[in-house]
Amino acid sequence: MKLIAIPFSHYCEKARWVLDHLDVEYRQVGYLPMMHIPGVMWQTRMRLGKREKTSSPMSTPIVVTDEGDVIHDSAKISRWACERYSDAQTELYPAAHREEIVAIEDDLGETVGPHARRYAYYGVLGGRPEVISTLVRSVPPMQRMAFTVARPVMVAMLRRTLGISEGGAGRSLERIRSAFDRYADRVRDRRFLVGDRFTAADLTMAALSAPMLGISHEDGYGCIMPSAEDMADDAQQVIAELRETPVGRFARRMYAEHRRTSG
Question: What range does the domain containing 178 cover?
Fold first, then answer.
């Protein structure tokens, strides 16, 4: 099984976490943003996804099974993997709470997910050169060489595609703060978002919030990540602020207690 991914993407981190949680064997095939477009076309043999509110037909993550099936989108991968590989102990969508879990997962995927992506790229592109150097370590050498040559063009395309600007980042930050506020009471005095066990709701909140909290590889993130101290100054301040919110503390606890990687 292959997981087609932009390795440092938090949506791809969600898919990795699910597969690791279920002890599924897979091989990650990593691409840099923009380079992933021909990669996805090749790896899926043009079996592309659907255009959604927060993704395009070539968005990652994508699972390609040994039988040749292609599953797009982190939420669909999570639900497919649980249907195929989970047992009573590892199930992330227990029947008694499935509808509520899916509703939270979808809400976070449409609010925190895309806005954390835009704000994180703003912090990366406005940070020190070491930030991008760290991120490109997650892909094969040929891609790193190509990125060195095409970097100005790729960065410009990324800024335009995701609307990365100071104003855009500010609007995304407000959406993230609003989402964190909505969930604050729910996570403040509860061990889990739904019921009395770890579910896809908890995993989704932790994974999709990770870029806003400076979650590192040492914390359990499935990719080498740059240090928060190397980000743009305002991004550093935001990370420090959000880490101490109820949602920030909750997400960090989910990593500490439930993130078990394959490697």
Answer: 95-258
CA–chain centroid gap for 5, Å, is 10
- In this structure, the answer to whether residues 57 and 124 fall within a common structural domain is no
Q: Are residues 72 and 100 in the same domain?
A: no
Q: Are residues 63 and 113 in the same domain?
A: no
Q: Which residues pair with 62 in a beta bridge?
A: 4, 72
* CATH (domain of 10): 3.40.30.10
Verify that 122 and 197 share a domain, yes or no: yes
Using CA atoms, how far apart are residues 77 and 49, in angstroms rounded to an integer? 12
CA-CA-CA-CA dihedral for 111, 112, 113, 117, to nearest 10: 120
pTM higher than the cut 0.90: yes
Read off the pLDDT of residues 88-136 as tens digits, 9 standing for 90 and up: 999 999 999 999 999 999 999 999 999 999 999 998 988 888 888 899 9
At 195-207, the pLDDT tens digits run: 999 999 999 999 9
What is the CA angle 233-238-241, rounded to 5? 130
pLDDT at 261 (0 to 100): 64
Q: pLDDT tens digits for 155-178?
A: 898 899 888 999 999 999 999 999
> Pairing relation of β-strands 27-30 and 2-5?
parallel
Residue 124 — φ and ψ, nearest 5°? -70, -50
What is the domain count for the chain? 2
**Local structure of 4: helix, strand or coil:** strand
What's the rounded Cα separation, in Å, for the pair 218 and 23?
20
Residue 8 has pLDDT above 90, yes or no: yes
